[in-house]
Amino acid sequence: MVKLLPFFAATVFFQPAFVLAVGGATGSPQGFASGTTGGGDAAAVTPTTTAELIGYLGDSSPRVIIIDREFDFTNTEGLCNDCAGCIPASDTCGSEGQLSINANGWCGSDPATTVSYDKAAIEGIYVHSNKSIIGKGSNAIFRGKGLRLVNNVQNVIIQNIHFTDLNPEFIWGGDALTLDGTDNIWVDHCKFSLIGRQMIVLGFGPSGRVTISNCEFDGQTSWSASCDGRHYWAILGYGNNDFVTFVGNYIHHTSGRSPRLDYNSLWHAVNNYWYSNSGHVFDVSSGSNALIEGNVFENVTTTLLPDSTPGQVFVPRKSTTGECAKYLNRNCYSNSVISSGSLSGSVTSFMVNFTGHDIAPAIPPSTVKASVLAYAGVGKI
Ligand SMILES: *[C@@H]1O[C@H](CO)[C@@H](O)[C@H](O)[C@H]1NC(C)=O
Ligand SMILES: *[C@@H]1O[C@H](CO)[C@@H](O)[C@H](O)[C@H]1NC(C)=O
Ligand SMILES: *[C@@H]1O[C@H](CO)[C@@H](O)[C@H](O)[C@H]1NC(C)=O
Fold first, then answer.
1. CB of 353 closer than 6 angstroms to any ligand 3 atom
2. Which N-terminal stretch is annotated as signal sequence (predicted)?
């Protein structure tokens, strides 16, 4: 009975059955994006073709869009055959590494080569405001194309969708989720695997209030920029004035950028489980701010990359968890760091930025691994 208790407590936190569902979703968002309602009361639609899905996502009606199957976008926009690419310096392992598409002049003076890739993955589907995109069961898959939330898109829920197969062989092969100029975005119980570039990228414009919860970032790949079967380009938070709650996620077999933060953003990373990262998890540059509490890091080489111009980071120790009380109205939890590089950060001044925002609750790190393994990812709700 005593052994079951933490598991039950975690169930209550991550699967709050007593909270009314919003916008056709299961549960409701915690943390910064707590006001998100997506398509609200709109009648549900269930697209059956990629064209119909693109239409529902991009039109101006509030919509609850049910995804009950796999949508395969590969070959829908043709191939780029023998297009310009290069062999980046990181690719020291031939076919087990990642070649690069020469996008944005990125290749520079790296040795040129040709690459053939699927064009559909390069740019995501445009999503309008007031949409819920809700996967049913465990086969709600977007294959070969991601989503693009830009130009002042607000109030979108993306739940229980598996994004996969976006030119994983190539750097710049495609981003699964792009946020750039958004507000109130809730990404929940999604899975990301075999993505060429970023699994999630928050671009230079303000992303506003975002909650990324209960997602699985699966970095296992046969084309690794770090030449070790792990994906380097996981999560990039480059926005200005971003408020990101990152809670209950499972990030595994990555080798960098998990996440990399820059510019003026505030991240609350709480109750996540990082496992088997051969490079760095956090890279927090000057201007960006992160509260890292109640997480588990297991077999992570570098938990927080030393930066020449570091951002502001608070990593509560057992003796300093009380420092959070005046900003969060509760104490923080310390982190559990197992077979991993050390983690520390003692700046608290940036936490004034939490004022006036909804703060995600937290569970003790001792219950986080079991809870995350049970609930993060697709097919769990
Ligand atoms: C989204 O819905 C809200 C509330 O109904 C409405 O005020 C707003 O104009 C909608 N946004 C767009 C871009 O349609
Ligand atoms: C973590 O890494 C160590 C070696 O550093 C290894 O012995 C151990 O099996 C790994 N743990 C897991 C759970 O894979
Ligand atoms: C947070 O507060 C700091 C002061 O410590 C400020 O420089 C920064 O702009 C704020 N960031 C956000 C995202 O509001």
1. yes
2. 1-21
If you take atom 1 of ligand 3, which residue's CA is the nearest one?
Answer: 350
* CA 279 to centroid of chain Cα atoms: 18
Domain ranges of the chain: 22-375
Cβ of 182 below 6 Å from ligand 1: no
Q: 237 near 259, Cβ under 8 Å? A: yes
Interval between CA 224 and ligand 2 midpoint (Å): 20
Q: Which residues contact 25 (CB under 8 A, 6 or more apart)?
A: 38, 132, 134, 157, 159, 186, 188
Ligand 2, residues 228, 277, 278, 299: which to mutate, most atoms within 8 A of Cβ? Answer: 299
What tokens does 28 get? 């409701």
Task: Name the closest ligand to CA 156.
Answer: 1
Confidence (pLDDT) at 9: 38
Report whether pLDDT(5) > 70.
no
Query: From ligand 2's centre to the CA of 242, what distance in Å?
Result: 35
Given a cut of 70, whether residue 13 has pLDDT beyond it is: no
- Residue 155 Cα: closest atom of ligand 1: 1
Q: What is the pLDDT of residue 10?
A: 38
Query: Which stretches of the chain are DSSP H helices?
Result: 4-14, 50-58, 325-328, 368-375
- Residue 36, ligand 1, Cβ within 6 A: no
CA dist., res. 199 & res. 175, Å (int): 6
Distances (CA, A) of 13 to 19, 90, 238: 11, 41, 29
Q: What CATH architecture does domain 22-375 belong to?
A: 3 Solenoid (2.160)
User: Is residue 288 lining ligand 3, measured as CB closer than 6 Å?
Assistant: no
Residue 28 makes CB contacts below 8 A (sequence gap 6+) with 16, 19, 20, 21, 22, 34
Q: Are 114 and 107 in contact (CB under 8 A)?
A: no
pLDDT band at 20 (very low <50, low <70, confident <90, very high): low
pLDDT in tens, 110-159: 999 999 999 999 999 999 999 999 999 999 999 999 999 999 999 999 99
Q: What percent of the chain has pLDDT over 70?
A: 95
Ligand 2 atom at minimum distance from 299 CA: 1
